[in-house]
Amino acid sequence: MRRASGRAERGFRCVGPWGAAALALLAAAATGCAGQMRGKPSEVTMKTVDQAVARGPFQATWESLEKYAPPAWYLDAKFGIFIHWGVYSVPAFGNEWYPRNMYVEGSSEFKHHVETYGPQAKFGYKDFIPRLTAEKYDPDHWAEVFRNAGAKFVVPVAEHHDGFAMYDCGRSEWCAAKMGPKRDIVGDLAKAVRKQGLIFGLSSHRAEHWWFFNGGMTFDSDVKDPKYAGLYAPAQSDKTQPDQAFLDDWLLRTCELVDKYEPQLVWFDWWIEQPAFKPCLQKFGAFYYNRGAAWKKGVAINYKNNAFPAKAAVFDVERGQLAQIRPFFWQTDTSISKNSWGYVAKQDYKTAASIVGDLVDIVSKNGALLLNIGPKPDGTIPEPEEAILLEIGQWLRVNGEAIYGTRPWVVFGEGPTQVVAGSFADTKRAAFTGQDLRFTCKGNALYAIALAWPGKELTIRSLAKSAGLAEGNVTGVALLGHDGKLTWSGTDAGLVVQMPDRKPCDHAYALKITGLRVEAFRPDLPIRPGADGSITLGADRAELHGSRIQVEARGGGPAVGFWDDAKEWVSWKVRFAQAGTYEVSARVAAAAGEAEFAIEIGDERLEGKAPKTENWDDLKTVAIGKVRIAKAGECLVKVRPRDAAAWKPLNLASVVLRRGE
To answer: Does 375 share its domain with 411?
Structure first.
């Protein structure tokens, strides 16, 4: 996984000069796969990959891959388990980046390693491999726990940045089938997961291996020894692009995983966004989607940032969420632990309540949650992690009806607590309250889920007649897990529900509301106001008018970017529930210099100015002015350059119209 502090941390520094040792390591790596293999080599070749691509229906182009649609099983599943288990669990110190940081002089891992195991030239990362014993690994027990946790799909890490494959790799000796546990960890889990009726997927973090061990090239360490190039090489600078040999090996390893284990989900970490990977991603996408078509199984690819076009795969946010409903299905991957993805001796765990709250919030915004655990070197799931999983499962047994198979409603929710959008923000939000509600729907049922116990009475403001969000009359309200009847009434403030004295479960509480004409979210529907009357126009709901302008996945969430051409503009279709005065603001960044823009709302026009920002992720909220909406109904909101001749590029994350008094 990518570390939360991003590229500025010491683990990302460029090391060098490379010199003769690096050249020797690269040469050893280039011949290592063929020369040191004792087992059966991979049957996947460039020829077999090209043949699979040629058979179709998908071709290795973005245009073809954008015809992809996520499978129904994924849209319905909502909750999966991620598993970070590898050699990095043996030192159990720091986090899963121990193998890199133990070679970065000055890091706490470097200091700990020398004090505990001795200098890296005598005891390197390779020497932990025999200690990954997996003697208590019981994949059937794991799979049973995952099913009891309410998970519907399971995604083990097949290979992390450290280059030690946890599967029977036909392209390397450095894998769990041939060293350490001497068993096919991934293959055994695949069988167990499928026996429990769950979907099997896997992840590859191999791309980052290009530079992962480069710290070991700067001092006397075993990384420099050509004998171990199969594990440590290439160990190049993270400021360079991978060469063709590495890219070919990456593609063939990934295709081998597909053919060997038939996963229905392949998850990628962030470094595949590098320009050099683009042809590989297009070829792999076509290969994998074509394999799925041949298997007659729905498959999916997860990506981060801007590695794939939005329609070509399923977008993933690491340790974070989104502020609004995303028109395309998406996913959050996060860990049960706040400080590590892999097993460490000192874990700082999240609570089941906070994870359930995140799950509900994500599902209400058209997403799924992939929750990670970190097993011990002996193959056992740490007791606190198993307990948290089973507590989540207990909640889902009561409330799963409001999660599985649902779709987002026309608005995701209401309430005072704001989710901090973007990656690495999973611990930044305040605790949810009983007034924080999230909505899902299925058939003719609307589910309103309170993210804490609301007390004796709950008012659902989004169901006030004045909100204009639902047609028809409520005929029934039930609390999932509660056998008794509820008293409720429709008022000007909303639907008021009298809650029972006794809670039916812990963490979050789902009301099933019937009688309304329930309309699920669709991207083509006009954007509607929330319960407070405000309307948020997010970048990923914008209609783009131009050939260069596009929606990017930025650090703080999606933003309209590449806005260099002053003739291009964006728009949203909005439905105002009420006439009145609205205060208008925009969240913008202008790294190239102050940018002036205009917002047109019907016949009204406001002008705004984005201040120069430090970078394109440095989003600022700018007050634009007030606009008078004469009557309720649909309206087109446009944002365009104020003066084409003076235009400077703008990143636009959102426009907010907040109803005044």
So the answer is: no
CB contact burial 399-430 (16+ within 10 A = b; e otherwise): bbbbbbebbbbbbbbbbebebbbbbbbbeebe
446 and 584 housed in the same domain: no
In a domain, 319, yes or no: yes
Say whether pTM exceeds 0.90. yes
Cα separation, 389 vs 351, whole angstroms = 10
Distances in Å between the Cα of 65 and the Cα atoms of 51, 209, 505 are 17, 26, 43
Residue with tokens 């200098």: 119
pLDDT at 22 (0 to 100): 61
16 located within any domain: no
And the tokens for 162? 């450290």
Could you identify the residue written with the tokens 């999606």? 558
Q: Which residues contact 90 (CB under 8 A, 6 or more apart)?
A: 128, 131, 132, 377
**Looking at this protein, which amino acid is placed at residue 547?**
S
Host domain of residue 461: 407-517
> What pLDDT does 658 receive?
95
CA distances from 457 to 8, 95, 449, 489, 588 (A): 48, 44, 14, 11, 39
> Backbone phi, then psi, for 120, in 5-degree steps?
-65, -20
Same structural domain, 78 and 167: yes
Q: Which residues contact 323 (CB under 8 A, 6 or more apart)?
A: 418, 419, 421, 536, 538, 557, 654
Pick the closest to residue 596 from 649, 638, 518, 550 (CA basis). 649
Residue 656 Cα distances to 15, 423, 435, 571, angstroms: 45, 22, 22, 13
Considering the domain architecture, whether residues 252 and 392 belong to the same structural domain is answered as yes
Count of domains forming the chain: 3
Give residue 183's identity as a one-letter amino acid code: R
Q: Which residue has the tokens 């020369």?
A: 35
d(CA 297, CA 69): 13
Q: Is residue 480 domain-resident? A: yes
pLDDT reported for residue 319: 95
Q: What does pLDDT average to in each consecutive run of 10 residues of the chain (661 residues)?
A: 42 42 61 45 90 98 98 98 98 98 98 98 98 98 98 98 98 98 98 98 98 98 98 97 98 98 98 98 98 98 96 96 95 98 97 98 98 98 98 98 98 94 89 97 97 98 92 96 96 96 97 96 94 92 95 84 96 94 96 96 94 94 95 95 96 94 66
The conformation of residue 351, written as its DSSP 8-state character, comes to: P
Question: What is the rounded CA–CA span in Å between residue 585 and residue 536?
Answer: 10
User: Which distant-in-sequence residues (6+ apart) come within 8 Å of 525 by Cβ?
Assistant: 410, 519
Q: Is residue 9 part of a domain?
A: no
Q: Which pair of structure tokens corresponds to residue 125?
A: 């990362």
DSSP secondary structure letter of residue 507: S
CATH (domain of 429): 2.60.40.1180
Q: How far apart are CA 394 and CA 6, in angstroms?
A: 36
